[in-house]
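Workshop exercise sheet. Pairs work together: one partner reads the sequence aloud, the other fills in the structure field after running the prediction. Swap roles for the next sheet.
Pair: D.N. / O.F.
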Amino acid sequence: MSAHPVSRLQWLSWGAAGLVGVLAAYGASALTASARSYCDAAWEPPHRFAHNVELLILTGATAGIAVTAAVLARWATVRGPRSARASAQVAVVLLVVAALAWWYLAAQATPADYPGDSGLCPSSNVPPWWPRWLPS
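Structure field:
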């Protein structure tokens, strides 16, 4: 028996952390797919298949890492008040998921050295609509 039992609300919180991870991974993947298809860079059928496999791996990994971050945040604040535990979990999950999405966009979103065929993008394959605050 654990000295600090886990409540139903805590399990729900961890499920929500996993859902946040899935949604962030899907959003980063969708933005990457949009950029690649707009510039027609690394968007041939074999690359589309690889992108779909990446999506599955990224989704599972991000959800698992988000839940792990929430569990570790709860463990670190187990003796604190409930509001501190909840706030710590939300902050840690959002920070970790944002960092993973940022990394994925920086690494995979716009392949700089791949020849784009659409003529709509410069040689860097960064579409004109790409937000400047996101890595490319």
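Discussion prompt: Residues 8-39 form the longest helix (32 residues). What would you look at next?
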